[in-house]
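Internal tracking record. Fields below are filled automatically when a chain is submitted to the structure queue. Please do not edit lines marked as system-generated. If the sequence contains nonstandard residues, flag them in the REMARKS field before resubmitting.
Queue: standard
Priority: normal
Entity type: single polypeptide chain
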Amino acid sequence: MSLSGGLRTRAHALRPHGRLLLHTGLSVLALIAPLSAVLFWLTIPTNSWQPVVLGELVVLALCLVAAIAFYRTVIWVDREGISERGFLGGVSDFSKDEIGSVVLLDLYQSGALDTHPQLFLTGTDGRLLIRMRGQFYSRGAMETVVDMLDAPVVRVPEPMTLQDLNRVRPELLYWFERRITNHAG
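SYSTEM-GENERATED OUTPUT FOLLOWS
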């Protein structure tokens, strides 16, 4: 059952980890606070601090917009299909009939031995519909999608690198993650 705008009623609402906003906020604060202190220290004696305040207000406004966008990011899933409102506000809505399969795998972080779960929801034509990354969503949220959609599930038993995934299933990756590979040999 869909509402106008693609939002589902009686659906499970899956949201990104709340700690992401906290960690990002602390990182921005760690960058901006010392920089602001130095700029104020240099500009107050010359009475030229007004542009610094303006810059601070712009950064604060951008942070507020980003926080609102984060809180509005959600995936709704029910027995009828799945909808996603992304960080930039776009809504994607897919009925159960449009869903071909669910691919679950663990992907190595670049340059590390740690892995994150990844869920790829593909259409009946093989194109990527929705991707849930373990950096943003819990494994439990991914299992909720699997349970609710009742679509064929492909569980890759061994963790993969981004390069392996690019070689085997490049259509699952975002355009900027794809690498031109040399298939000669």
